[in-house]
Structure formats: structure tokens, C-alpha cells
Amino acid sequence: MKWGILATGTIAKKFASTVEQMGAEGEQLVAVGSRHLESAQAFAQQYGIPRCYDSYEALAADPEVEAIYIATPNTLHYENCKLCLEQGKHVLCEKPFTITPEQAQQLYRLAEEKHLFLMEAFWIWLLPLYDHLREILTAGTIGELKQITCQYGFVASGARKDRKFDSGLGGGALLDIGIYNLGFLRILTGQDPEKVETKEVHINEYGTDDYSRLVLTYPGGCMAESVQTIGQELERNARILGTKGSIFLPDFQHAETMTLEVEGKEPEIIRCPVDINGFEYEIREASRCVKLGRTDSDRYTPQDSLALTRLMYDTRMSWGMKFAGEV
Fold first, then answer.
1. Each residue of 104-117: pLDDT tens digit?
2. Quick one: CATH architecture of 128-273+307-319?
3. How many Cβ atoms are within 10 Å of 175's Cβ, its own excluded?
4. For the domain 2-124+280-296, what is the CATH code?
């Protein structure tokens, strides 16, 4: 599939590098767009992209581009997705998909009306280890889920700090990295929580969250704790406790290894390495769905995406945390 990349930041570079390494699979980078021509030119030169544009509109109008990967700040996702869909492009949009559930619903409806593919680029959902983990849980290997804990934290600094804390860009720990925690919990439970309690939250001088600790209760009684922060280094580990055993993931984001412990058996280390860096699976899924004529993925569905969008929206509304420009 012929890809265009909208924006030229760090995550866009990772995407471009991944597509480069997937060349034998038929994925091509044919254009890149930025608000600044110099940025687009430098990006195009670095990744061997034949065309570059100084506007997102020009990129979306390129007739050779079949699909566009959107890598702009959070608050721009809605308008960027809408632009690309209206120009007849398939879209893979970086997480978090949109700021509000209403925006997400509108975009999925638009994609369906125009018979175009649209998916949130929530790459960890499609990792091989999680396919195996789902099989273990479905088989009842560790019994019924009782307790889950997960944490993710790093220290944002410099320009990265400004962007990740900026209310006008949809900053804060919840949308930036909390989505990994909450998505991980949905991978395990397959359900919306019945109850979400904020045990701790810190809103900084930028008006966004740099730390929160949530406790979620799921149907059947499973309890989960999610800690997310962009002000402290935390190991990205997770532990899953069931009635018959447990699973430990030393890194649930870049998930390639987990330890399975079942009552009466020796612990088992399970490894499912990625092919490149993990991004390849969302790219393959987008291409697969486009070839099948699908407007969405049946693996990471609009329902899953909407559920996470709504969960994060409701949580920050309970904090009274509105982004700049939100009513």
C-alpha cells in the first residue's frame, strides 16, 4: 500500500523506519506533509520519500497516496482524520484517537459512508504476545481474573515536556501513556469497567495531569489498578492474578515476554518476539483490511477504540480537567 505521513515528529519517524524495513511486504512511503516545508524535505530525504508538501491539505490531495498515517498532537487528530477521509484516503491515526467520544463516532461514521478504512494506531493491541495471552485467559489456565496491576511512567523534559503537558495539544499522562494501561486492561477483560475510582491525581500548572492512580472494577469482581505518570520513572510492568495462577509481564508495552505461574506447575517463561519494533502489526492490519474492502478492523474494533476514548474522557471530566478550547 502507498502511504503518506502527516507530520514529521518522533513517532512519525518510527513509523517511517518501520515501513522502510517492511519493503518486501509491498508497503511504500510515497509522500510526507508538514506545516513547514523544511521539515518535510528533511524527513523525505532521511527516508527516501519522493514527494514532500508544506501543508496537510496538499498531502491529502496527492492522488498517488492510498493511506495516510496521522502523527500530529492529540487535539489535531479529529480535523486531520476528517481532512484525509474527505479526500478519499484510508487512515491510520495515532493514539489517542480523538479527544471526545463524539469526535470518534463522527469519524467512524464518515469512514463507513465513504467506504474507507479507519483505525486508531494502538499498536500494542496487535502484538503476538497478546494474542497468546488472550488464548491463555480464554482457556481458563489461570482461572477467573481477580486482580490486575499495571504502571507506566517516565520523566518528560525539554520540548517533549512542553508538548506532553500542553493543554492546547491534549497533553497529560492519561491520554499520553494511561491509554496503554487502560487498553491493556481491556485486552485482558474484554469489557468496560463497572466503576472507576480516582485514588490520586495531580494536575500541574499547565492544567494537565502528570500523575494519577485509578482503581477499576470489572463485571465479575475483577479489580485493577492503573498508575500513569510523566513526572517519574516507573517500570512498565504488569501482574495478573487469577484463581488458579498468575502472569507477570516485565514490560507490558513492548510486550515480548511473560512468566506464567499455575498452581502445581513450574513457572513458564513465554517469549513472543516482534519482527521489527511492534509497529509492523498495525501497518499489516491496515493493509489487510484495505485489501478486504473493510472500513474498520475486526481485531482492534471501533467499539474498542470508542470505549477507551469514552473511559479517558469520563475520567478527566471527573477531575474537572478540560483542554484549552473545550466547553
1. 999 999 999 999 99
2. 2-Layer Sandwich (3.30)
3. 25
4. 3.40.50.720
